[in-house]
Specification:
Layout: H1 2-34, H2 39-68, H3 76-105, H4 110-131, E1 133-139, E2 142-145, H5 147-161
Helix pairs in contact: 1-2, 2-3, 2-4, 3-4, 3-5
Transmembrane segments: 9-30, 42-61, 82-103, 109-128
Keywords: Membrane, Transmembrane, Transmembrane helix
Protein name: General stress protein
């Protein structure tokens, strides 16, 4: 049982990190092939990778806790509360940045909007998946609470008890 959980945690943290590395390669390939370079595109790309790295960090810390049986990062929940707020601000700022850049760049910017919207949508999905509902475990109109959300709630309640 412990071995299965350990394998799953390794799979999760390495998978999230591999996604970040893959997206970086694809992004730079795409940018050089099509020569689209906009601030909004760079912004949503960095936002997405920032969120994915949080998932990788979370699963890595959970794996280390399981492996060493020690509390590796005692204030983990506080860090992820801050990350959650930063993510929300970054995601809310994206449409504003997009509109400003569309106004400034006008027609030369239109070719990048599709890619920006795809990356932005993916960033929103990952944010929801990490901090609200596990979208992969969505059954019968009900979602399972996300692991990071459970961690935040569990340790926040402990702090209130003291």
């Amino acid at each position: 049982m412990k071995n299965d959980l350990e394998k799953r945690l390794v799979y999760l943290f390495s998978g999230e990190f591999a996604a970040v590395i893959t997206f970086i390669f694809v992004y730079f390939f795409y940018r050089s092939a099509i020569s689209i370079d906009t601030f909004t595109l760079n912004y949503v790309f960095v936002t997405l990778n920032f969120i994915l790295l949080q998932g990788s960090l979370f699963w890595f810390i959970k794996w280390r806790r399981l492996k060493t049986k020690r509390l590796i990062f005692p204030k983990l929940y506080r860090t992820f509360i801050i990350f959650k707020k930063i993510n929300f601000i970054l995601l809310c700022a994206t449409p504003i940045i997009l509109l400003i850049e569309m106004y400034i760049m006008s027609s030369s910017f239109l070719s990048a909007i599709f890619l920006i919207m795809i990356i932005y949508g993916f960033a929103i999905i990952e944010y929801i998946n990490y901090y609200h509902i596990q979208l992969t475990n969505y059954n019968n109109g009900r979602g399972k609470k996300a692991s990071i959300a459970k961690e935040i709630r569990k340790y926040s309640k402990r702090q209130l008890d003291f």
